[in-house]
Structures are given as C-alpha cells and as structure tokens.
Specification:
Chain A is mainly α and 185 residues long. Helix content of chain A is 65%, strand content 8%. Chain A has helices spanning 3-12, 18-26, 38-50, 74-85, 96-102, 109-132, 134-137, 144-184, and strands spanning 54-59, 67-72, 92-94. Chain A has a two-stranded antiparallel sheet. Strand 3 (92-94) of chain A pairs antiparallel with strand 3 of chain B, so a sheet runs across the interface. The structure holds a DNA duplex (28 and 28 nucleotides).
DNA sequence: CTCTACATGTAATAAGTTACATGATTGC
DNA sequence: GCAATCATGTAACTTATTACATGTAGAG
C-alpha cells in the first residue's frame, strides 16, 4: 500500500490532478490515515501512467496554469482491487508525541504543559478538519466504507483527546514534583 | 525522531543489547507507537557508538553467542533531551486497514467479513500484548509518563475495537446488498 | 504589495525494509 | 528432529522527504 495505490484509490472516486490528490490527502477524507506530498504523488502518477493504470489529458486554462487531469483505467481498477485484496499489512505508526510523553520525566514542567496543550489543540484541529469533510463523505449516496473509515477516525481522535483531558494533569503534576525535588537539592 | 533517538530512549532506562532493544520495540512498552527491525537498530547503534552517544562492552557467554551490551553516555542523555525538546513533529500514520475499509465496496462480502474479523483479533492481541507489559510499566516506581503513554495506547485500541464491534456489520451489510444487486443483473 | 491558492515537476538525500549470511542451544 | 530463542551484522533495494525551480492571479 504505497502512494501509487493511494492515487489509484483517489482516482477511482473521480478524475483529479496531482494537486487535487494532494489536497485530498492533506485535508480530505484520507488525511487521518495517509500522508503524501507532491514529491511522492507526482512521481507515482508518472509511474502509473507508464504502466497504463491511469490515463492523462492535458487541460489548458486561462488565468491558471495548465493542468494534467488523470483518470483511472480498467487495468487500474483491477490493480486497485488486487491491492485491496492483498493480506492485511499492519498499520505503520510512529508517534513523536507518545515517545516524548514516555520520557516526560526528562523535561521541565513548562515543556510538559506545552506538549499536552499543543496536542490537545492538534486533536481539536483534526476533528474540525474531519468534520469539515463529513458532508461529502457521510451522505447516503457514498459507500458505507467511507462513513465507516471516517467514523473510526473521529472516534479514535475523540477518545485520545478525552484521555489527555483526563490524565494530562498527572504528567504535569509529576514534572512539578521533580522540579521541587531538584530545587531542594 | 528516528531509530537512533529510539535507541537512546531505551538505553536511558537501562543497558541493553541490540537484540533486547528490538524486543522492547516489538513486544514491550514501545510497540504501539514505534516500529524498528534489526536492519535499522544495529546500524543506528553503530552510528551512536561512532558519535560517542553510547558506549559498548562485549560480553562472552557460555552456551550463548557473545553479545554487545550498550549503555548511554552523558552526551547521549543530553542528545536525548535535545530530541525530546524539539518542536513536536506530527505523528506518522499509514493504515492499510483504513484504506481498505474506505474502498470496501470494491470487495466481496466474504473479504469484508474477514477484514473486520482479522482486525478485531489484531486489536485483542495488541491489548493483550500491552497488558502483558503493564506490570513493568504501570507501577508507582516508574515515571508517570510511562503509565500515561501506555494508558493512552490502550484507550485508543479499545475505542477502535468497540467501534468495529458497533459498526462493522454495516460494512458487511452493504457488501451483501451489493452482491445481491450484482446477482440480479 | 503581500499572501494564498493554483499548478507541476526534479534532484539530492535520508531513511528504512528485506533479504542474505551464520550458528549454538533449549525445549517439545 | 524441529521450531523457537538468542545474537549480530551487511548489502541491495525501495521509498519517501526536502529542497530546489518557476510562474500567474486574485483577495485583502
């Protein structure tokens, strides 16, 4: 499941340019479980074009740069289904935040407090971002899978935010205690 | 936050061999937010040794292969704190599972059913794996950060598993409906 | 006049994965 | 006898990130 497959998936929902694909990954319904920048999307589209899994038509626009609109081919749809049918690979997660909280005792109380506050803000932003695309994903016309994936993301974010609100103070409390002990020495 | 920093973090809790580090990442308290295999851990330890952030003593054992026990140096501890103090980088998540569920309408009901069941099993395993190391992480002697990180991971897994139990059937129901429609054609 | 949005791409670099290579011991 | 655990490492490959490179138009 690489960026090529991601592009196939997005194109299976409708034609798009590289720019639009990137927007769907950054802000749209894929944002909570995939990341990709231009530097991986454009090369991926190039390879898909080479192997005939997508087609491309150039569109000149006035008062806008030309754009290349990609559309998925029949072979592309088959390749997508193949990729989806492959044995489930485990999710890849690497959390700088959790790594940092694990070693919170090495930071100052001020740092810990900021860490928690920033993360809470980030969860709020993420939830807002996701709710902004709820209207396009959570309608009856869209497949159930889209609603499901969206709902699972929201649920997880909300559970995590709640945990932070419930337990964040414990981290700060310990940091303050350690600082008092240091001061006593 | 790369594998080098991960090694520094783990070594800050006590000396370890490359093999033991890998075990902590695969099964220990780091398993839910970091991944690393031998192929990244050994080279990382090599680089840390070169730059003097860790020290290494060789230990021969009888009836076991020799091992290299690494320990963090003072500079290593400083480097770790530096890395922890760096501005929070967003978590990296790439979920094959969520990608697949998003496009569940392209799969057969059988495939969807298996997907959900396997994922639920995976969550159960993950929760069990994490609870197995609860005893070493969730004691009063360990820093609050370890308990916090552990608790957040468990909370998120449980919330996700609950969501699957609550909404997984919707996905299967749609798949069955699509199959009936196909059969009708 | 500055910032954001639109729009595409390449090159250099960094990072990590997979496969390869080896080998003893312990428990079933 | 076979699988699992302990134990270390390299080389080739794949992949993705970052920085570079360029340019228009509309909104404020």
């Amino acid at each position: 499941m690489d960026v090529k497959t991601l592009c196939l998936g997005i194109l299976s929902r409708g034609d798009a340019t590289g720019y639009e694909i990137r927007k769907q990954v950054a802000e749209g319904p894929f944002s909570h479980f995939f990341e990709a920048g231009y530097g991986s999307i454009y090369p991926a589209l190039g390879k898909l074009l080479e192997s005939g899994l997508v087609a491309c038509r150039e569109q000149s626009q006035d008062s806008r740069p030309d754009k290349k609109v990609y559309s998925i081919s029949t072979n592309g749809r088959l390749a997508l289904i193949d990729a989806l049918s492959a044995p489930a690979a485990p999710d890849r997660v690497r959390s700088q935040f959790l790594f940092t909280t694990f070693f919170a005792h090495l930071l100052s109380a001020r740092q810990v407090e900021r860490l928690i506050a920033e993360r809470l803000a980030w969860y709020c932003e993420s939830v807002e971002r996701m709710e902004r695309c709820s209207e396009t994903v959570c309608t009856a016309e869209r497949p159930a899978g889209e609603r499901f994936t969206h709902g699972l993301g929201l649920t997880v974010y909300k559970a995590a935010a709640q945990y932070l609100e419930d337990h964040g103070h414990e981290l700060v409390a310990e940091a303050l205690k350690l600082e008092r002990m240091d001061a006593a020495d």
